[in-house]
Design brief:
Blueprint lengths: L2 H25 L6 H24 L8 H12 L6 H5 L3 H25 L3 H29 L6
Helix pairs in contact: 1-2, 1-3, 1-5, 2-6, 5-6
Length: about 150
């Protein structure tokens, strides 16, 4: 993968992590279970840290500071990243189902990216994020099973 492609891929993953952070922040408002609320808030913080790891291995010098980037992305994405009609129909069950789907999709994108990247630092960051994403998925599934008594499909 060429540097320009790597830059674009890392920027895309950085944005995906920030979008996930916004989802968890917003969706936690629709949760009833205190442990699930706690987990969504924890996941939001972890998504921010994932974004930070992608920022640290970004090979270009064309980005502002991480804090400025987060603020700019947050300002521009907060109103548009999450469909307000979808959020209006969200309940605890659908919030957990959407979270599972999101984490599964992110894991697949990360696995594909890992197979295409030759930069060792980027590989390490991507693998770390894959492992963390799979941990998120397990946590979401555990919450779903604890609250609803059955496993999420998938």
């Amino acid at each position: 993968m060429k540097d320009a492609e790597l830059q674009q891929a890392l920027l895309k993953m950085l944005q995906a992590e920030l979008d996930a952070m916004h989802y968890y922040q917003q969706a936690s408002r629709f949760m009833q279970d205190e442990a699930a609320i706690y987990h969504f808030n924890l996941l939001a913080q972890e998504e921010l840290e994932h974004a930070r790891t992608f920022y640290t291995v970004y090979p270009g010098d064309d980005l502002p500071s991480f804090e400025e980037l987060v603020k700019n992305m947050s300002d521009s994405q907060a109103a548009t990243a999450i469909d307000p009609q979808l959020m209006g129909r969200l309940n605890e069950q659908t919030a957990l189902q959407l979270a599972q789907k999101m984490e599964e999709e992110v894991a697949e994108v990360l696995k594909q990216l890992l197979s295409e990247v030759s930069n060792p630092a980027a590989q390490a960051v991507i693998q770390e994020n894959i492992d963390s994403t799979l941990g998120h998925l397990e946590l979401i599934r555990d919450d779903y099973q604890r609250i609803f008594g059955n496993l999420l499909p998938g």
